[in-house]
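Review session, final week

We close the course with one last complete record, chosen because it touches almost every idea we covered. It is DUF2203 domain-containing protein, a protein from Leptolyngbya foveolarum with 149 residues. Go through it on your own first, then we will talk.
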Amino acid sequence: MKLLSRSKQRPPTLPGDEDLADFEQDLKKTADEFLRVRDRFFAIRRAKAKYEQATDIDQTALPKAELAQLEERIESLKITLESQLLSWREASEPFWQIVRYVGLGLVIGWALGFWMAGKKASDDRESANRLAIPTLSATPSPDSSRRPD
């Protein structure tokens, strides 16, 4: 067997202070985002439990005032759940990515369209030149000085 010599192996490189600071900052951002997601999850869970509890009440035995209050509470819980599920912070990144890539697609499409239209026009001109009927010229050609005998 062939043994590897130590001279061919590179020593491991350690990350610099700037890399470690960037990593630490990214780690803090990730931890903060995780805490926000966790809090949001528990808020949705609480709102869902309240919603289920409010909808399980026998509504026929309640007075109209209390029934109206419960319906209002149910509607507010629905709004809370929907707003928790659809927040701008969560949708902003995918929204801007869609805008970016659709815009890029449109620009590429327009560029290809203009390029193809220009290519088609030049091809049309070339084919028209090839099919053009030769016209009689006013200048005599060198062969016209000779008369047939």
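Two points worth writing down before the exam:
The mean pLDDT is 76.
The chain has two domains: 20-86, 90-130.
Good luck, everyone.
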